[in-house]
Amino acid sequence: MNILIKAAAIAGMASLAFSASAAAQTLETVKERGKIIVGIQGDNPPYGFLDSQGQNDGYDAEVARLVGEYVGVPVEFQIVTNQNRIAALQTSRVDVIFATLSMTAERAEALQYTQPYAEQPFYVLAPVDMEINGVEDLAGKRIGVPRGAIMDLQLTALATESEILRFDDDSSNVQALLSGQVDAIGGSMFYEDRLNAQAEGKFENKFSTGSLYVGAGTRLNDHEWTKTINAAFDEATANGKLGELYQKWFSMELPKMTTPVEGVNWTLE
């Protein structure tokens, strides 16, 4: 897994983290309540989005439902954004985050990661006729990013001679490029498809800024709940269901995802 930079520290996260004594025992709560409340994105296909009937769909939604099946309770979804998803977890508004939560050591100070269930490359995207081959070509340009997302942290650190414009979500970031509000944007490997769906052949991936594993997020020190989700992932991997979902949504085989991530411990060992 190639990561070109370490994300900058996320302001305020550590101050929100629960202490060991205050950590909620989520598994017990979930069983007593009879459902899992999942924080998920509503505008980031194919991970988490709303279908034509307004129902939560995508890879994150289906993987969360597999966890519900493993625990034996249904799943209820609550929409979160890049900037409020961790706070929603820490304030117990949700039991777990399935919201394209890329793994970084800085975030691991504020939450507990499960084992990874996806790997996501990141790119800079711009018009086809714009000459951009690397970070040096972004100098003097307006670059759009989703506020608080990995692309925000990456490009703020890398593109120091660019004007970084932050948008509330992925959809707003994509629209900013389509409308000419920015010259380029940072996004996932699925941004190019989203752009081509609205302006075929006009935009492309220019260069990669690296890739990160994606894990679910639980509260710090709530080890029983985290181990339960890891066990659900192990079962779904062994019986092929996770691989089927990966093929369905990403049209590729499920990666091995065994390379350690510095500063992140998902095994709880």
TrEMBL record:
Residues 1-22 form the signal peptide. Keywords: Signal. Residues 35-253 form the Solute-binding protein family 3/N-terminal domain. The keyword Signal applies. Gene3D superfamilies: Periplasmic binding protein-like II (3.40.190.10). PANTHER family: ARGININE-BINDING EXTRACELLULAR PROTEIN ARTP (PTHR35936:SF17), MEMBRANE-BOUND LYTIC MUREIN TRANSGLYCOSYLASE F (PTHR35936). This is Transporter substrate-binding domain-containing protein. It comes from Devosia honganensis.
